[in-house]
Amino acid sequence: MAEPTLPSGVAVDFGGTKIAASRVSSGRIVTSARTTTDGDAPAERQIEAICGLLSELNLDPTEPVGVALAGRVDAGGVWHALNTETLTRVHAVPLQALLSDRLGRVVTVQNDAIAAAVGEHLAGAGRGKQRFGFITVSTGVGGGIVLDGRPVISPSGLAGHVGFTTSRQSSGRCGSGRVGTVENVAGGRAIAAAAGGLGHEGYDAKRVFEAHLSAEIWASELITRSARAVAELCANLVAILDLERIAIGGSIGLAQGYAALVSAALAEEPALFRPEIVHAELGPEAALIGILSELA
Ligand code: ADP
Ligand code: BMX
């Protein structure tokens, strides 16, 4: 397969836990600046956080800028949190217009997981696949689908939000308003909340994962339950779209042994419903490459 031409520019990856801005040259990160996400900040402060990181990178007046972020981005470039417990004050923010005006160029704005799916399809785990899916297991559980080389993007920006489908492993109402979602059992916020419910207050998902790797049974149960919900999601996606391969990314998805737990749970499904499960290959570059590519 011929090597793809990878984009250059400055891209922001805005997640529920961290925000990173990076200058990318032919798909490789050259410099980065990052900060912690304040999920309760009003939209103006979220925009200040984005612009603050961009100014740390000394934007060139002509270089392309793309912003990949948690939440849905509609066809008008308007940003809406879907999980309103992750980003509590992001409602109908005309982000593309505001950033384009402020930065004096057309800024591309898209959901983070869709951007990462495009990046992985172009240059990572999805190369050459006709029916490819990407799932991030991170603060939440997000997704992007690439069919016949094109990302599935709907006018409202909702398409691909696979974390808001339901799971047998899950219960309770999540910040999307839906009950029993994959995100509400498998995502980092849910894992931390479950740990708190077991008396392990102050544990974030990273610390729960470390406890799991140290063979603490309560932690392994939470991580295994997360992986089982993601496996169920993968089988459901095969039933709907017959995906050939699904790449698992995000800090939890890429943590040691997580994808293997997903594959082990999938082994309980009938063969027809088992896609190939792989690690996302590009790590933090995926969303950056995706948002700077012409498909975002
Ligand atoms: P974001 O959601 O901001 O895009 P991440 O992909 O880093 O960011 O996901 C953040 C979640 O991943 C948090 O719940 C955090 O506790 C968890 N996490 C971060 N690092 C690790 C790690 N090494 N192993 C397991 N979980 C991790
Ligand atoms: C949630 C949702 C998605 C996002 C996904 C992963 C919000 C704020 N987020 O499902 O839009 O793609 O999480 O986001 O509605 P991350 O914060 O875990 O990277």
Key features of this structure:
296 residues, alpha/beta, Nucleotidyltransferase, domain 5, five-stranded mixed sheet, 35% helix, binds adenosine-5'-diphosphate
Question: Can you write the helix and strand succession as a string?
Answer: EEEHEEEHEHEEEHHHHEHHEH
CA-based shape: globular
Largest sheet: 5 strands, mixed
Poorly predicted sequence stretches spanning 5 or more consecutive residues: none
| Number of E-state strands | 12
Total helices: the number is: 10
Structural class: alpha/beta
Task: Explain what this protein looks like in three dimensions.
The chain has 296 residues and is of the alpha/beta class. It is 35% helix and 21% strand. It contains ten helices and twelve strands. The longest helix is centred in the C-terminal third of the chain and has 25 residues, at 217-241. The protein has two domains: 9-112, ATPase, nucleotide binding domain (Nucleotidyltransferase, domain 5), CATH 3.30.420.40; 125-279, 2-Layer Sandwich (Nucleotidyltransferase, domain 5), CATH 3.30.420.40. The strands form three sheets. Strands 3-2-1-4-7 form a five-stranded mixed beta sheet, sandwiched between helices. The mean pLDDT is 97. Bound molecules: adenosine-5'-diphosphate and 2-acetamido-2-deoxy-6-O-phosphono-alpha-D-mannopyranose. 2-acetamido-2-deoxy-6-O-phosphono-alpha-D-mannopyranose binds next to α3 and β9.
Summed up, what is this model?
This protein has 296 residues and is an alpha/beta fold. It has 10 helices and 12 strands.
Fold blueprint:
Layout (H helix, E strand, L loop, with lengths): L8 E6 L3 E8 L2 E9 L6 H14 L8 E5 L2 E2 L5 E2 L14 H9 L4 E4 H12 L7 E7 L3 E7 L2 E2 L31 H4 L1 H10 L7 H9 L3 H25 L3 E5 H4 L4 H9 L9 E4 L5 H8 L4
Parallel strand pairs: 1-4, 4-7, 8-11, 11-12
Antiparallel strand pairs: 1-2, 2-3, 5-6, 8-9, 9-10
Helix pairs in contact: 3-10, 6-7, 7-9
